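task queued by scheduler; priority normal; single chain, no ligands, no partner chains; default sampling; output format set to structure tokens
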Amino acid sequence: MFLSVFDLFKIGIGPSSSHTMGPMTAARRFLDEILDGDWPRPAGVKVDRIGASLHGSLAYTGIGHGSDRAVILGLAGETPQTVDPDKADGIVARIGAEKRISPPGHPAYRFDPAKDLVLDRKTPLTGHANGMAFYAYDASDRLLLKRIYYSIGGGFVVSEEELQRMKAKGSVTTEGKKVPYPFKNAVEMLAMAAKSGLSIAEMKRVNEEKHMSREELDAGLDAIWSAMKGCIDRGLSQDGVMPGGLKVRRRARQLHDKLQEQWQQNRPNPLLANDWLSIYAMAVNEENAAGGRVVTAPTNGAAGTLPAVLRYWLHFHPEADQPSIRDFLLTAAAVGGIIKSNASISGAEVGCQGEVGSASAMAAAGLCAVMGGTPEQVENAAEIALEHHLGMTCDPVGGLVQVPC
């Protein structure tokens, strides 16, 4: 099963890949379905009103994760990759005041968020914990179209029909493309590496280049790291209280300044590496909690782990260079793809072990690879990192990606 590096590392906004990016993507898909989908269209009848309902985990923790806000933005035509976080609140406020929504390429639709966006805690959708339904009505409020989508973790969204096909095939991922090295698990990955003589990153690169040019792949990998680095930098420059009502204060900048002072004074600290790693990760997590621009790695809730390790490698290792960044990301994506294909990266489905556990395995694999590890050592590093997170649950206080996240 092939998952592209760009499926696992998605540039978007916080605070949650499954509860924010997923609903926004699903809402945008529904817009496309209204215009181009295969559904019966009564002659002379047009869509006049649209609505949505969130179910399961999305209904219970949706407000804290900004799921309602994400749906509104998606129905307005925004995507996680292109929405401007600084303008998002204004878009949502305007739609709430006007009770109409005008997506690009569409007529204006009636849409009152207070009535047409429902958090339905009583009616679970059976396909997945993160289910949502979208509706289109005519001017007489007659239902014309209903579509159900599921946000299955890491920003991945599937329709009800797609999910049924995936389950019938015994895979929890979308259908993959044909590639030269189609490993489905670590055993197959190591066997292919031994037979080919290639590293995990090299096999992953060959697979990716089956569907894009080397220039496109490298440019995409560089863009991913640029977004990750930008998120760290923003997190290290911000102060104040994070949104949501818990009044959790940002700490990354203050702690970074203190650590920088210790570094300049050359004061010995046996835990210095852990301090830098923690501060980099905290900077990303705080940006994510504030709804800023982040990269799923493999999810928003775990977005700080991998960039922190890569940033530390680049700053404190003399052999770090641009090609090593790409190898790090490719190796990490190979491991993340195995986890996604065989288990889950959704916190709502399997707990934090599926988010931070997966992120730690991916980061450990990437770091081991760029430090010269063999494929067997890379696999061992991923396994060790993952096993120490098994059993971690997902119990965010107030439904916010802040405590303990």
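post-processing summary
- The two ends are 30 Å apart (CA to CA).
- Strands lie at 11-13, 49-56, 100-101, 109-110, 117-120, 130-137, 143-153, 156-159, 293-295.
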